[in-house]
Amino acid sequence: MTPSRIRKTLLATAAATFVLSTAAALADPVQWNGKAQTPHYAEDVFPPWQHGQNNDATRRGFEFTVPEVDVLADFHGDITNPSLVLYVGGNYFFAMAPLVSAFEHEHPEFSGKIYWETIPPGLLIRQIEAGGTITSGNMTWTAKPDAYFAGLKKIDQYIKSGLLAAPAVPYVTNTLTIMIPKDNPGHVESLKDLGRPGIRLAMPNPEFEGIARQIEASLDKAGGKALANAVYKTKIANGSTVLTHIHHRQTPLFLMQGLADAGVTWQSEAIFQEQTGHAISHVDIPADQNSTAIYAGAMVKGAAHPQAAKLWLDFIKSPTALAIFERYGFKAYHGGSMPDHDSE
């Protein structure tokens, strides 16, 4: 069996194990009293978590959002005729509403005319390669980006390949944390604890979530290759690590539903969940085991709205924007020899 097929088999096994354990929990006659009823968890556990604040549309028409059933949490605004289209690495989706509001305050001509997406940057690249067309559920639409935002290393890479236009614009940095349920049922206190048998993990997928590379590096710093292999190989094989597609959405959901005991995310995501009031907490990772991301952006080659893209790229590094980022634990980027990693 080829390595690719082995990997696919392991992922399928882990996913099936996770689904079956979830189904078993929901079918528990004690939990459900033997009756058909709506879930016991609060509806606001499910995205969208900001009650429509991340929608820039001024005319919203008929409101139809059913958490867990019908919701497009990472697609924002009115696709009809936007004046600026942004592809943003999903790990600061929660900062986009105040960022857009502040930008529109400075440039009112864009009010209600900005559309943005916040899925992982690797998936956004796939959408760019598909001409800006994407399908979610039964809906397909096209939104070609004017600017793309990810880790500085990736931005530089895509400028060199001709997908993006120079210059790269770095603006903030971020570090890793261990996201846990507020009551910390697994008693997770460090990265080393993630390798313990019985600790269920939700971890970003290395295939398209760049954060996975930083996580593996941090695991190696904390416990060597043995710890990294335990989390990303052994536990995937036995079903106690599930790989996410969109870790900034899935990890907190799995934790709040009792489906996982921990997951490594960017610290900003844990801070947002705590600020929202969700039953989420986090465990700090020591600096000597942590990894730092540099966030950057650039205009997309052939952008339909190049002047709008330049305005946003100027704004994203402004004191106003940096103050918004700092609410969630980001730090302003000041250059220097800081390690250069992907941001998602």
Can you offer a commentary on this structure?
- There is one protein chain.
- The chain has 344 residues and is α+β, with helices and mostly antiparallel strands.
- The protein has two domains: 3-31 and 174-284, Periplasmic binding protein-like II (D-Maltodextrin-Binding Protein, domain 2, 3-Layer(aba) Sandwich); 43-173 and 295-332, Periplasmic binding protein-like II (D-Maltodextrin-Binding Protein, domain 2, 3-Layer(aba) Sandwich).
- The chain has ten helices and 13 strands.
- The strands form three sheets. Strands 1, 2, 3, 6, 7, 10, 11, 12 and 13 form a nine-stranded mixed sheet that branches.
- A hairpin with a 2-residue loop joins strand 4 and strand 5.
- Helix 3 packs antiparallel against helix 10.
- The protein is globular, with a radius of gyration of 20 Å.
- The two termini are 31 Å apart.
- The model is unreliable at 9-27 and 337-341 (pLDDT under 50).
- Keywords: Signal.
- It holds the Pfam family SBP_bac_11.
- What is the ordering of alpha helices and beta strands? HHEEHEHEEEHEEHEHEHEEHHE
Q: What is the name of the CATH superfamily of the largest domain?
A: Periplasmic binding protein-like II
Unreliable segments (pLDDT under 50, ≥5 consecutive)?
Answer: 9-27, 337-341
| CATH architecture title of the largest domain | 3-Layer(aba) Sandwich
- Please report the total strand number as a whole number: 13
Total count of domains? 2
Question: What is the number of helical segments per DSSP (H or I, 4+ residues)?
Answer: 10
How far apart are the termini?
Answer: 31 Å
Oligomerization state? single chain
Instruction: Tell me the helix content.
Output: 25-40%
CATH topology title of the largest domain: D-Maltodextrin-Binding Protein, domain 2
Backbone shape? globular
The average pLDDT score comes to 87
Organism: Komagataeibacter europaeus
Protein name: Sulfate-binding protein
Signal peptide: 1-27
GO molecular function, one term: molybdate ion binding
